[in-house]
Amino acid sequence: MSDQNDYGQIPSSDNNNYGNLNGNNAGSHTSAPHNSGAQNPGFQNPGAQSSYAGNYGQQSNYGQSNGTQNSNGYPVPNQPPSYAGAMGYSNGAEPEKPATPKTLKIASYFIYGTILLGIIATILQLSNPDALMQQAGITEEDLSGSGLSSEDMESFTRMIMWAGAIWAVIQYALTIMFTVFMLRGANWARIVLTILMVFGAFGILSLPLAALLDVPMGIAALSTISGLLCIGAIVYMFLRPSNEFFRKMRERKQWLAFNQYR
Question: What is the CA radius of gyration of the chain?
Fold first, then answer.
């Protein structure tokens, strides 16, 4: 009669199911080589990295990384060159203010010369009221026919003289102001002075037409010299050193305007 255990079962010489299960598991655990590459579908190996993380630092077609990272750890793509760098300024430094060229100074001397000659011509004209009236086309017959007295004629002549003096002062003051702005690099002042000098250049015709226009020879000679100075001023204002000066001043103003609110 076979022995029975307390549960009514006959024990076998072999290991029980629990033992066999443990045995098989132990055997398979010890005999099967460990596959480090295999992963449980429900468990992610912390040692494995995703392809996104592995390829994160690589360059993409959208933009290339410049090797720097922002505060969140993301690579910063290459930025387009700044305005200062595109203009050729090293490290975006402020360009130096160019010195006024000699050609522009000579042009200013010519302009001041025209002003001086104009003042002399104005004084000569105002000192001779009869010649001034004659240049204006007003004769004594016209005044006498108008019924004006001698006091009225003197008052009228004095008014013309003061009007001419005031106009000359305004004209010369504006010319000096435009010249100062031009020497400081204002290209608009150079354009204005060019227009004024073009009109003044017609003064070279004063001497040949002095007899025809009844202009005194002294004033005609001053006007002719002033016209030559106007032509010289125009030439020197547009020589190469002068043009380079205004170009550098324009670039410097553009740089200052670009970096004003940065």
Answer: 49
**What is the reported pLDDT for 24?**
44
Q: Measuring CA to CA, which residue among 156, 150, 121, 151 is closest to residue 138?
A: 156
Quote the CA–CA distance of 65 and 51 in Å, as a whole number. Answer: 18
- Residue 49 host element (H or E): none
pTM for the full model? Answer: 0.60
- What one-character-per-residue DSSP string does 59-120 give? --SS--EEEEE-TTSPEEEPPPPPHHHHTT-GGGPPPPPPPPPHHHHHHHHHHHHHHHHHHH
DSSP string, 191-229: HHHHHHHHHHHGGGGTTTTHHHHT--HHHHHHHHHHHHH
Residues of the chain with confidence (pLDDT) below 70: 1-92, 129-150, 261-262
Q: How many CA atoms lie within 13 A of 246 on its CB side?
A: 17
The whole-angstrom separation of Cα 81 and Cα 66 is 13
Neighbour-count burial of 129, counting CB atoms closer than 10 A to its CB (0-12 exposed, 13-18 middle, 19+ buried) = middle
pLDDT of 170? 95
Is 190:182 a contact under the CB 8 Å cutoff?
Answer: yes
Long-range contacts of residues 197-205, Cβ cutoff 8 Å, at least 24 apart:
197/111, 197/114, 197/230, 197/231, 197/233, 197/234, 198/230, 198/234, 200/114, 200/226, 200/227, 200/229, 200/230, 201/227, 201/230, 201/231, 201/234, 202/227, 203/227, 203/230, 204/228, 204/231
CB 253 within 8 A of CB 187: no
Let me know: does 236 contact 182? Beta carbons within 8 Å.
Answer: no
Cβ atoms of 205 and 227 closer than 8 Å = yes
